[in-house]
Amino acid sequence: MQKIFTKPFTQQEAMPEAGIEAVTDLLRTGRLHRYNMVADELSAASQLEQDYAQWQGRDYCLACTSCGYALHIGLRAMGVTAGDGVLTNGYTLAPVPGAIANVGARPILVEVNDHYHLDLHDLRHKAETSGAKVLVLSYMRGHMPDMHQLMQICNELGIQVLEDCAHTMGAKWQGIRAGNFGVMAAFSLQTYKHINTGEGGLLVSNDKHMMAKAIMHSGSYMLYERHGAAPEAEAFTDIRYTSPNMSGRMDNMRATLALAQLPRLEENCQRWNQRYDLLAEQLAKVPGLYIPPRHADEAYVGSSIQFMAQGIALAHLPDFVQACAKRGVELKWFGEAEPKAFTSRYDSWHYVEPQHLPNTLAVLEKTLDMRVPLTFDLADCQLLADIIADVCGDFVQQ
Fold first, then answer.
1. Torsion of CA 174, 176, 177, 178, to 10 degrees
2. In Å, what is the CA distance from 55 to each residue of 120, 135, 138, 343, 386?
3. Pair (60, 190) in one structural domain
4. How many domains does the chain have?
5. Beta 60-64 vs 201-205: how paired, if at all?
6. In the chain, which ranges are E strands?
């Protein structure tokens, strides 16, 4: 009898009871807007900014409506303007080039290597030939490149780095948190990320001038002194007149949900890795599948897993994905020519100037992706690995 997996891949854990109670109390006040507080009371949005800045180890934090929005205003705060070239990964999700396009800038796509990392040789080449001075570094699906080498290249060439940490909240490289390498970094609080507020983002930095601009862009009006982790008022003296309002700071309800989950983040990162490590160990044994090894200096958070179906003919990959789906295993294929659900290949972003990245295409055409929600236990992960191995056996032989 065939094994079948019956749990949904989109079901997240319930909110902590303390968060549910705090949101209920907030709803009774009706004060959901980020600045709708009494006297000198600290809003939930400001409290989240303070608490996350302390947890992350950054001076400043801005709570936003989404990670994509945080990337967008982060680029503006860094001085990117229409027509500028901005470097970014060829393998990422659509909101990253979307944020670059939102500024009117031109995404310059950089190859990824066989480990899903930004190709540092191509980064240097693209930087030198394009003259681009900003890199949006996407840690796509939580994979961090050699940050020592990457930052050496960027410092040498005068490139400012904006880290897209949508998938790396809690991850580290040589003990340094993802988000603490570049001049700015953005984190996601979307439902499938490491803190779940439905939608939301956090922008962090140690640069007071950039953060002051971002706060003005976020829709602070002239209430910037009410922010929880903001530069001193003097930093706003001139830029408050020249930074357009693009309202997008987080509301108090989502901030309240985030505050309730932050104390559990470290524990949850460990729980994700228990599940990821089991899956990685079991799938690595399956003939025809390949999981790129993680670097010893990378402390990852395995909230999803990627592997390459190297032993399955490209023409049979859609059937393999469908066969897994029939047995309850939801895989996403990044090699599909047409965008589907959350996945898309860089050549489907037609608002980006056509670019050819042969290694990225070669990697993506065999890459499969699977969420690992914390609603799955270790027995579930073993069952998932067993089903994938069973289905894979039918296709590797073809």
1. -70
2. 30, 25, 21, 31, 38
3. yes
4. 2
5. antiparallel
6. 60-64, 85-89, 106-110, 134-138, 160-164, 172-173, 176-177, 184-188, 201-205, 298-299, 304-308, 332-333, 367-371
**3-state SS assignment for residue 238:** coil
The residue among 220, 244, 264 that closes a domain is 264
7 within domain boundaries: no
Q: What is the pTM assigned to this prediction?
A: 0.96
Residues 175 and 137 in one domain: yes
Mean pLDDT, rounded, for 316-339: 94
CATH number of the CATH domain containing 204: 3.40.640.10
Name the domain boundary from 264, 296, 319: 264
Q: CA 192, 194, 196, 200 torsion: positive or negative?
A: negative
Residue 259 CA to residue 195 CA, distance in Å, equals 9
Both 194 and 210 in one domain: the answer is yes
Is 16 exposed, middle or buried (CB count within 10 Å of its CB: 0-12, 13-18, 19+)? middle
* Total Cβ atoms within 10 A of residue 152: 12
Chain centre distance of CA 82: 24
User: Which position has the token pair 């895989």?
Assistant: 331
Query: For residue range 373-397, what is the model confidence (pLDDT) as tens digits?
Result: 999 999 999 999 999 999 999 998 6
Domain match, 235 and 373 both: no
In tens, the pLDDT along 10-40 reads: 999 999 999 999 999 999 999 999 998 887 7
Q: What is the residue-wise DSSP string for 338-372?
A: S-BTTB--GGG-TTSPP---HHHHHHHTTEEEEE-
Both tokens assigned to 353: 């100037």
Q: Find all residues with CB under 8 Å of 92, minimum gap 6, and list them.
A: 138, 140, 164, 346
Instruction: Identify whether 273 is part of a domain.
Output: yes
168 shares its domain with 269: no
The gap from C-alpha 320 to its chain's centroid, in whole angstroms, comes to 27
What's the domain range around 143? 17-264
**Dihedral angle over CA of 43, 46, 51, 56, nearest 10:** 160
